[in-house]
Amino acid sequence: MTDSSTTPWAGALSASSAASPKMARALLACGMAAGPLFIVAALVQGLTRDGFELNRHPASLLSNGDLGWIQITNFLVTGLLTVAFAVGMRRTLVGGLGGIWGPRLVGIYGLLGMIAAGVFLPDAADGFPPGTPAGQPKSVSWHGLLHFASAGVGFLCLIVGCFVIARRFASLGQRGWAAYSRITGVLFLAGFIGLASGSGHTAAVLAFWFGVVVAWVWVALLAARLRAGVLEATRPTSAE
Q: What pLDDT sits at residue 138?
């Protein structure tokens, strides 16, 4: 019999996951891949695209310009992977705190924070792409407004999701993971507030980049933990 402490900190798997553990593992693996894909793609572009400066520009501005399709694709693919991960979370987290709203909040983040943010382009700003006037745009386009609104709602959902998952860990006595989840939520919130203030200060932009990396690392580690739990829960055990 599998000890409950080694299962996905929930107990029994859902009927769908128990019947198809390979599908559950595949969906959870999407969460492991989403963050590294987004971070690497954004950083490579940020370091190689003419006029882009990591200490001045958020990653979303990479959606503009002749090569903007790369970041748009990054948003869309990462968003789809995140939504798939949310489905895997829902199949895996059965009973207890956060079993419903944890996956929902992560899924909304994938839909709004990534996919919608890729569909609705941000306005060019602060000298990027090259030829754009310095500073913030004097007026905001409809698609720029939708980009900011959808991303903002998505970010807030992931932040709340961190605290929802933290409560689940805390209810199971896993204080380390509970604290880690709360810290992730706080850091991502701080970075988002700095960017949303519109100050454009180097510290605010870098804090947002840091918050994004921290959040994606948390998603990847959470996905890995859940996937390991599915493997353990479905592993054949010898008869006593």
A: 87
What confidence score (pLDDT) does residue 7 get? 43
* Spatial distance between the Cα atoms of 145 and 122, rounded to a whole number of angstroms: 8
CB of 117 closer than 8 Å to CB of 158: no
Inter-residue contact 226 to 94 (CB < 8 Å): no
User: Cα–Cα distance between 213 and 73 in angstroms, integer?
Assistant: 19
CA atoms of 181 and 222, how far apart (whole Å)? 9
Per-residue pLDDT, 8? 45
In terms of C-beta distances under 8 Å and separation of at least 24 residues, what long-range contacts does 98-107 make, across chains too? 98/164, 98/165, 98/167, 98/168, 99/10, 99/168, 101/161, 101/164, 102/161, 102/164, 102/165, 102/168, 105/157, 105/158, 105/160, 105/161, 105/164, 106/82, 106/157, 106/158, 106/161, 106/219, 107/82, 107/83
pTM higher than the cut 0.70: yes
Closest CA to 229 of 14, 8, 19: 8
Residues in the chain with pLDDT values less than 70: 1-19, 199, 233-240
